[in-house]
Amino acid sequence: MSEHQQSSLRYSPLWQLTVSRIREFFREPESVFWVYGFPIVMMVGLGIAFRNQPVEQIAVDILDGPHAEVVEQALGSHEKFVPAIHEPNTAWRRLRTGNTDLVVEVDSSASDRYVYHFDPTRPESVLARSAVDDTVQRFAGRSDPLQVSDEAFEQPGGRYIDFLVPGLLGLSIMGGGLWGVGFVTVDLRIRKLLKRFLATPMRRTHFLAGIMISRMLFLIPEVLIMLLFARWMFGVINYGSIWAVVSLIIIGAVAFSGVGLLVASRAKTIETVSGLMNLVMLPMWMLSGAFFAADRFPESVQPLIQILPLTPLISSLRAVMLDGSSLGSQWMAITILCVWSVVSYTLALRWFRWS
Fold first, then answer.
1. What is the mean pLDDT of residues 321-345?
2. Percentage of residues in the chain with pLDDT exceeding 90?
3. pLDDT digits over 34-63, tens only?
4. What is the mean pLDDT of the chain?
5. Where are the alpha helices (DSSP H) in the chain?
6. In whole angstroms, what is the distance from residue 310 CA to residue 25 CA?
7. Are 211 and 185 in contact (CB under 8 A)?
8. Cα–Cα distance for residue pair 64/62, rounded to 1 Å
């Protein structure tokens, strides 16, 4: 690079704005923690809390009666059951409060008639009913016509941590776009710096591009740290193309930067922009599938959930990272994110106030 080119770059408004934003960021240790440290803390906490564990034992209460000991003997021969004989009132209370998974009642007049009492809204209670019935039927002499064997399948991709990492990536991209662009812009407006920038030989596009470029520079190490830590700590594997993941991250970052700029286009106080950002982020935290699948919500609200920008971002990241899908197969999610980008930037630039 020639001396003239170096001088031009040194005094370029875009260059100076980008460098000043980077310097300002690294002068605030708390900002560095929230961008790079907090996602790792969440990953570690949730990864440990929902790590793969052996199947928990099934608590089974048996109503006290003349044949209760037979059922207790049948279940007690298996380690996965914790049978106990209780009076009816005690057993009903324990089932109601979730202290037992199933209550078994044996007909006092016929020892071959069992009644299973369980909560159909609790998955563990439904599974307990099937497991107990299978065990007592075999204990009573049932024979299975087929010979079967069990073989454990343990491979990264189906664990909760594998499901969680794309969700955390999406949350980081959303938070960075809204807080890293929107909050910073309002903070500059409050400190009267935006008006001062207008008095300098700077184009308005230089200012917006400087914030965008600095956000992208912060995003690269943020995503890299998360992916490397997930691989080292939990063995999370990306089954798709790394370039497809990078492309989705960039598209998502651009979309959420536009949303952040739109939110900050008119806000004049920290309280206003904080409230607006929470209003925008909270529905996506709950509905977009960061911590559990978005399809758990009713069908009636699915059209709304699917057009939220975080939903297609997370779903496409999961499709690429977990299923090995191609970038082209995620064209619908990419289209939704591009529409958000175009609309948010268009409205933000139209409504943006410098003072």
1. 92
2. 13
3. 667 777 887 777 777 666 656 678 889 989
4. 81
5. 3-10, 13-26, 29-32, 38-49, 68-76, 88-96, 123-139, 160-177, 184-190, 193-198, 204-234, 242-263, 270-287, 302-307, 310-323, 331-351
6. 25
7. yes
8. 6
Q: Cα–chain-centroid distance for residue 271? A: 27
Give me the CATH topology for the region 58-139: abc type-2 transporter like fold (3.40.1710)
Angstrom distance (rounded) from CA 324 to CA 311: 18
Q: Specify the pTM.
A: 0.72
Sign of the torsion formed by the C-alpha atoms of 143, 125, 51 and 245: positive
CA angle 89/95/98 to nearest 5° reads 135
Residue 316 contacts by C-beta under 8 Å, 6 or more apart in sequence? Answer: 248, 330, 333, 334
What does the chain come to in residues?
355
Q: Please, where in the chain does CATH 3.40.1710.10 lie?
A: 58-139
Other Cβ atoms less than 10 A from the Cβ of 48: the count is 11
Residue range 25-35, pLDDT digits in tens:
677 776 667 66
Report d(CA 248, CA 328) in Å as an integer: 11
The DSSP output letter for 299 is G
What secondary structure letter does DSSP report for 81? E
Q: What is the largest CA-CA distance in the chain?
A: 102
DSSP string, 3-47: HHHHHHHHT-HHHHHHHHHHHHHHT-HHHHIIIIIHHHHHHHHHH
Dihedral sign, Cα of residue 208, residue 285, residue 217, residue 255: negative
Quickly tell me which residue has 């021969």 as its tokens. 77
Question: Is 259:344 a contact under the CB 8 Å cutoff?
Answer: yes
Centre a 10 Å sphere on the Cβ of residue 118 and count the other Cβ atoms it contains: 20
3-class SS of residue 155 = coil
For residue 301, pLDDT over 50 is answered with yes
Q: How far apart are CA 36 and CA 180, in angstroms?
A: 13
The single-letter DSSP state of residue 63 is E
- For 350, the token pair is 């139209």
